[in-house]
Amino acid sequence: MRKIYRGIAWTVAGGVVVQAAAIAFAFGGMLNLVSEGGVVDKALLESFQAGGVGELGFLIHGLVGGVVIPLLAFALFVVSFFVRMRGARMWAAIVFGLVALQVTLGFSITDVPYLGLIHGANALAIVAAGSIAALRTRRMPQAGSRAVATDATIEEASSDAVAT
Questions:
Q1: Fewer CB within 10 A of the terminal residue: the chain, N end or C end?
Q2: Angle CA(46)–CA(60)–CA(122) in degrees, nearest 5?
Q3: CB atoms closer than 10 angstroms to residue 4
Q4: pLDDT, tens digit, for every residue of 51-81?
């Protein structure tokens, strides 16, 4: 279960990287369209037929950010209940909460454009939280497990006991 948890956490972080690349591609294409004399207006945006370079970036950004990453964050939260690791649920909840905030901010940007500042910063927080959740699976012992003594530790303890 740890491998699944780790894989989902890394996929969430990677999804945010895809998001950043897609939106940069989209805006680069839009700037290219404008620099060549094109006009970006409401009619163009509603027609979904801009035909310009980078238009696909908006679609990718919308699908990955509005569907894929939220589903992955939810899956991470569900899987966290089956992972025997200290802090798994907490970090999965943090990732899920940040993703929920991100989706809310993303849909609110058209009404309040300044929320885009928080939207961008929150994306970095999602990458950080997803990465931390994934990296913790390698360092943390299982919750409720006890350290298993190796043969070397038992021999050292026996020789110490004999020496005293």
A1: C
A2: 105
A3: 14
A4: 667 788 888 999 999 999 999 999 999 999 9
Quickly tell me which residue has 């020496």 as its tokens: 163
Q: Per-residue b/e over 129-149, b at no fewer than 16 CB within 10 Å?
A: bbbebbebbeeeeeeeeeeee
Please state the pTM of the whole predicted model.
Answer: 0.78
